[in-house]
Amino acid sequence: MSDKLFVKTGPDDGYSIYLEKDFSSLPKYMEENGLSGKRMCIVTDSTVNGLYEKDVREALTPLCTRTDTFVFEAGEEHKNLDTVKDLYVFLTERQYDRKDLIVALGGGVVGDLAGFAAATYLRGISFIQIPTTLLSCTDSSIGGKTGVDLDNYKNMVGAFHMPKLVYMNLSTLGTLSARQFASGMAEVIKHGLIKDEAYYEYIVNNFNEINERDGETLEHIVKRSLEIKRDVVEKDPKEQGDRALLNFGHTIGHAIEKYCDLSLLHGECVALGSIAAAYISYKRGSLSTEEFYEIRDMFLPFFLPITLRDDADPDEILKLTKSDKKMQSGKIRFVLLKKVGKACIDTSVTDEEILDGIRQLILSDEWD
Ligand SMILES: NC(=O)c1ccc[n+]([C@@H]2O[C@H](COP(=O)([O-])OP(=O)(O)OC[C@H]3O[C@@H](n4cnc5c(N)ncnc54)[C@H](O)[C@@H]3O)[C@@H](O)[C@H]2O)c1
Ligand SMILES: [Zn+2]
């Protein structure tokens, strides 16, 4: 396995994404991209540190003048400004300057946080992404969105900052817990739902191979998801238009994430938010009853939730959707499905429709 995609960020600018099965080609690609002869600070979390930091450090050492490793406690609750500040201090104490490099090694939490620190330290230094979760390989490591949470409000502080390259060792996905793997599948399913009906069908029909993490199947879904995301972010790098389609499932998903006080994983909340958004689309006549149920039930074989606890408060979740950033002049830019494989942005979704979508997650057992 060895594959490559290129993301254009300007007429003569862009970065490569390498899909590999180990870390052995990392030095070669770093050199090809002019990323040698620097100090390199690996930023990782407490779990990934024990699994892959040594391999990455050994691969980078011959290339650079020095390596350092900054480790923070794993988990979304550490994706905040306190951890960013610790990282700034770490870099300052070791006199990192503008020519040096940050290496984000881990899942979306590491990528978002390290990318944000790279965007802001000394007004911006270079960084690369080495994603190690299904979610970060298929979604968060490309597109240049970086940021951290503020008082549990998701991604409230952030910046666009493009990586210099993205290197994936897909064998790292083998050590992910079943729950983390499932969480990544929510974003993969989202890609099919918003952009590619054939891909959606492929996912529905290959759930066994996907869940078994069959190498070829995984490579296929990572590549197809990346192509979909690449095509969207190339056309709309700063989310002026179509890039917002990638927020499908996220308006209600983020509200649920906050409502549950981060006890549910990001992808689990995206699954629930996607079902609610599909329900609103169905109620508006864009999806048939069968299509809606198929979408809802396809999350089940991937071990993703399709219901909320029955004591969940829909009004409270609705309130939390208002603090999501995806607003324009006070209106939520909601992403709906026109049909399977095609999404649209809609600013006319009412509170009542959102409440219905959320209630459906609480009541859906009674529907069967
Ligand atoms: N920037 C973007 O465009 C974008 C897009 C989607 C999601 N996100 C963000 O991504 C974050 C979620 O990312 P995530 O799901 O990767 O979470 P994560 O980074 O917290 O990783 C999940 C858990 O898996 C562990 N882990 C990572 N790689 C592992 C491996 N190979 N083997 C075993 N354990 C491993 C981590 O230590 C962590 O405990 C959220 O904060 C979300 O907001 C960002
Ligand atoms: Zn997401």
Hetero groups in this structure are: nicotinamide-adenine-dinucleotide, zinc ion
In terms of quaternary structure, what is this? single chain
How many whole angstroms does the radius of gyration measure?
A: 20 Å
What gross morphology would you assign?
Answer: globular
By CATH, the architecture of the largest domain is named Up-down Bundle
Sheet with the most strands, sense and barrel status: 4 strands, parallel
Q: What number of structural domains do the residues give?
A: 2
Helix proportion of residues, in percent? 40-55%
CATH homology superfamily of the largest domain: Dehydroquinate synthase-like - alpha domain
The number of helical segments is 14
- Topology as H/E string? EEHEHEHEHEHEEEHHHHHHHHEEEEH
Strand order in the largest sheet: 4-3-5-6
What is the CA–CA distance across the termini? 43 Å
Strand content is: 15-25%
Number of strands: 13
Unreliable runs, pLDDT <50, ≥5 residues? Answer: none
Alpha-beta classification? alpha/beta
CATH topology name of the largest domain: Dehydroquinate synthase-like, alpha domain
Keywords:
Rossmann fold, single chain, four-stranded parallel sheet, 368 residues, 45% helix, binds nicotinamide-adenine-dinucleotide, 14 helices, alpha/beta, 21% strand, Dehydroquinate synthase-like, alpha domain, binds zinc ion, three-stranded mixed sheet
